[in-house]
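> call design_seq(struct)
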């Protein structure tokens, strides 16, 4: 696929943007996750990549990536952040304060971390259409 920077949009004034993503693999296969923080000019500030054991669904993988991004951004001292991911379901659940039985634990954690930031936004970005993983 193309790199995450191809259609990058600048964050709102005064915010940094954290793009996060997870590659989902079921069961015992490792899934990958990562995040990258840039300022309003698109300048690279921080990033992290990691592996975790497979979750049950792409949504759970995406929540795991977001929680790690939230914790990392906060521990690095960022307090005004826009978190952008490519899972529409997750963004709708967070922004509409909806609950979801299977994602309850994840959403509660995200909600708790959300309150630690001064300004926080959750936005959705479509996964590039030429990416191998389409839903």
């Amino acid at each position: 696929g193309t790199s995450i920077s191809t259609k990058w949009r600048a964050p709102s004034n005064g915010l940094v943007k954290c793009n996060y993503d997870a590659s989902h693999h079921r069961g015992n296969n490792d899934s990958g996750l990562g995040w990258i923080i840039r300022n309003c000019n698109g300048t690279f500030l921080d990033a992290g990549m990691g592996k975790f054991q497979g979750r049950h669904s792409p949504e759970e993988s995406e929540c795991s990536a977001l929680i790690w991004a939230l914790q990392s951004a906060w521990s690095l001292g960022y307090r005004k952040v826009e978190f952008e991911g490519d899972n529409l379901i997750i963004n709708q659940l967070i922004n509409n304060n909806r609950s979801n039985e299977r994602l309850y634990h994840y959403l509660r954690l995200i909600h708790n971390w959300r309150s630690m930031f001064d300004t926080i936004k959750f936005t959705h970005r479509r996964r590039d259409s030429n990416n191998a993983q389409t839903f």
